[in-house]
Each structure stands twice: as structure tokens, then as C-alpha cells.
Design goal:
Length: 125
């Protein structure tokens, strides 16, 4: 898994990390028992404060996605992958709907920034 963050994005950096794990789970790139990089490694590779990474890991732990083990790091839990087939199917449906949204916006001549703004407004309502 390749980790990235965008410091200019409005989403907090820790939230970007959490989202990447959820996306990787939905694609099947992460599975039960997979180990995430150590907080120190991840912070260093992304040039982040270690507390940013630890906050992301704590959120994932609270969601039941990872189990934090001293000395072993963050491990994807069985609870997070239970129903992965359903989650994958649902994620595929969302990707398909987004593809239709992007195609419709492009056909209407809307720039990507406008599509993003419209999506964010829809999420708020």
C-alpha cells in the first residue's frame, strides 16, 4: 500500500490516513492480519508528526478496524473484514455512481473543482 497525504487539502492529515485504510479495505488491498507500518515509519516516510499518525491509528482502533499491539504495531482485525464481500460490492456501487456523476459533470462542462464543491455540499445536507 502506498501512503500519501495532501497538506493543502481541507481534510486533516490524520483523516486522510484513516480514509486510505478504508479505501484499501474496500478494494481488498488490506485483509485480516495485515500489518500497517509502524507509526514512526509512517510519520517519517510522509514527513508527519508521529502524533498525527497515532491519532489516525487510534481512530481506526476505535472503529474496530485495527488492533494496536505493543511491539507489533497496528494489525487489521477480523471485525473490519467481516462482510468484506458486501463492503466490496457496496464500494463498487459507490464507485460506479461516482463515475456516472463525473461523466455527467464532464458532459455539462463543469471543471473538476466544481464537481468536488457540489459533492461536498451534498455531503453537508
Amino acid at each position: 500500500m502506498i501512503w500519501t497525504v495532501d497538506p493543502t487539502a481541507p481534510e486533516p492529515l490524520y483523516a486522510q490516513l484513516v480514509a486510505q485504510v478504508h479505501v484499501a479495505l474496500s478494494y481488498g488491498d488490506l485483509a485480516d492480519g495485515d500489518r500497517l507500518p509502524s507509526a514512526r515509519e509512517l510519520a517519517q516516510s510522509l514527513d508527519l508528526n508521529i502524533h498525527t499518525v497515532l491519532r489516525a491509528f487510534q481512530i481506526l482502533r476505535d472503529e474496530g478496524v485495527v488492533e494496536l499491539r505493543r511491539g507489533r504495531g497496528a494489525i487489521i482485525t477480523a471485525r473490519s473484514t467481516t462482510g468484506t464481500t458486501n463492503a466490496t460490492r457496496e464500494a463498487d456501487g459507490v464507485r460506479q455512481a461516482l463515475r456516472q456523476y463525473v461523466d455527467a459533470g464532464t458532459a455539462a462542462g463543469l471543471p473538476p473543482e466544481a464537481l468536488i464543491t457540489l459533492l461536498k455540499e451534498a455531503l453537508r445536507s
